[in-house]
Amino acid sequence: MKNKIIGIFVCMLLITTCVLPVCGTLSESTIKKSSVSPGDYLKVMFFGNRLRSYRIHVPPNYDGSNPMPLVVVLHGHPDNAVHIQSIGMNAEADEKGFIVVYPNGHTYSIQWSLMNLIYFGRWGYFWNCWDYDTIDDVGFLRKVIETLQSTLEIDSSRIYVTGLSGGGFMTYRVGAELSDILAAIAPVAGTIGGIWMDKNGNDLPPYTIPKPEHPLPIIIFNGMNDSLVLYNGGKSPSGDTYLSVNESVAFWVEHNQCDPTPQIEISESRNIIKKTYANGSQGSEVVLYTVVDGVHGWFGAPDWPYEYPCEISATELIWDFFAAHPKQ
To answer: Are strands 263-266 and 241-242 parallel, antiparallel or unpaired?
Structure first.
């Protein structure tokens, strides 16, 4: 039985490597930082007795001689590392000079974990979700970062995380639990907590991300007309209840010890409201972009399936924010 499972794994790996748009695989035991060529790579590992995978985009100007920033991008729920690339982060990386990694979320079983190379995964963004509490997604993401630091020239003071929807929820949690290594985070269409339902539709105890150990700059994006993650909080169509955008912002303003009164900028169209809570500890700040007519999605994403015409580009604004906030 064990040999059969291994055989299935090898077949799936070969299929994935051939079908999906990757140029190869990285092995930390054989690769040298200076020998990695620009391009797109698929990496597979076992972590926590599960098959896990992630995709890496190395920009054209990488030659291994100078450390580069790293941006971790977390897909929605459920989705995968292929689709989330439609937000345009690779093009931004090529222009600005940073490495991007797209981890795949976890799945239910060995068979689904194998399929996760191609299909869909999810994140354990609330510790008490019924199938998540035994899966260490935070540990997996820490391991991904550590592995990339051993195979690529990564600037340890410029490691960032962003994500959409379920990936936005996970970005909040990772920021709280990995504030020792992260320089800044950028959740999109997410929240810091709420009340999840179990398999039988019963409410689990309320959950809010833990308090981070260190200040952490954060830029947040939410649409006021989001029907899935309600801007003002409350029960979503799925039956789960989420905390509001204002509660999420207040959590980080208090943690970072920012000015409680924000600087407010409103676009000429009056559709974009930017609030900046400045003067936080160790150079931190909290920035909230509200898209008044915004729905659930990545604002300004250029390509299918996340294409979202908008007068702002979340991708560009996120990188500008990251570039201005190295770890203090």
So the answer is: unpaired
